[in-house]
C-alpha cells in the first residue's frame, strides 16, 4: 500500500524541475528581447537590397553579396580594429598582470584600497575619461615634451604608431593608449580573482625545491592563473575590437576603426544593408577568434 511519502515524492521532483525553469525564465526573456530579436533584425538588414534607400524603402532580397562588398570596401578598417584591439589587449595583459600580482600578494592591508582604485575610473563617464586623454596627449602638454626629450616619439614613429615625430594625439598610439586605459580594469579584476586563489604555499614549495623566482613563476603561478588570463583577454579584446569612441576622439581619419564605419553607415549615410553586413562580419570574426582561442587555451580544463 502506497504511503503519503510515496505519493508526494513525484510531486516534489516535478516542483524542483519547474523551479529550475522558472529561474531560467527571466534570463531567457532578457536574451530574447535584447539579443535574439535585435540579432534577427541585424541579420535581416544585412540582406537588404543594396539599391534601397530610406526614401524608397528596403526590401529583403537575401542579397548575400552585401557581405563580400562590405568586406572589400572596409577591410582596412576591419584589420586596423583587430590590430589595435590585439595590441591593447597585450599591453593590458602585461600591465594588468603586474598590478593584479601586486594586489594579490604584496598589497597587504592596502589590498582593498588598491582594488577600489582599479575600479575608480568606472565612477566617471566613459566619454569623460576618453576626453581627458585629449588634454594629456595635447601637443603642448608635458607628456609630449617628455616623450620628445627621451626620443619616444621618434621610436613610435619608426614602428608606425605615430605619423610625425612631434605629436601623440590623432595617431594610432593615442587610440591604442585610450583603449588600454579604458579596458584595463576588465583585465585586472579576473586576473586578481585567479591569483588570489593561488595557494602561496605552492610558490614557497617551488622555492624550497631550488626553483628560481622566475622559474617558479612560469611553472607554478602563471599556469594556476590561466583562467584569469583567458577571461581577462576575452573581456578586453571583444569590446576593444568594436569600440569607436577612442578612435573618434583620440584618432584621425587615418585611424578609423570598424566601429566608426558602422556608426557612420547607420546614422549618417543611412546605408543599412552595408552597416548590417559589416556588423555581422565583425561578429563572425570575433566569435571564430574566441572559439579558436578558447580551444587553444583549453578552457574546459582550466575552469
UniProtKB/TrEMBL annotation:
| Major subcellular site | membrane
Q: Which domain of life is it from?
A: Bacteria
Segments forming domain ABC transmembrane type-1: 78-291
Segments crossing the lipid bilayer: 21-43, 82-105, 112-131, 173-195, 216-238, 272-294
> What is this entry's stated membrane topology?
Multi-pass membrane protein
Kindly give the InterPro entries that the UniProt entry links to this protein.
Answer: MetI-like, MetI-like_sf
What Pfam families does its record include? BPD_transp_1
Is Magnesium tagged as a keyword?
no
Q: Which GO terms describe its biological process?
A: transmembrane transport
Alphabetical keyword list: Cell membrane, Membrane, Transmembrane, Transmembrane helix, Transport
- A single GO CC term, please? plasma membrane
Where is this protein found? Cell membrane
- Which CDD domains does this entry report, sorted A to Z? TM_PBP2
**SUPFAM superfamilies (alphabetical):** MetI-like (SSF161098)
Report the PANTHER family cross-referenced here.
INNER MEMBRANE ABC TRANSPORTER PERMEASE PROTEIN YDCU-RELATED (PTHR42929:SF1), INNER MEMBRANE ABC TRANSPORTER PERMEASE PROTEIN YDCU-RELATED-RELATED (PTHR42929)
Q: Which family does it belong to?
A: Belongs to the binding-protein-dependent transport system permease family. CysTW subfamily.
Protein name (Swiss-Prot/TrEMBL): ABC transporter permease
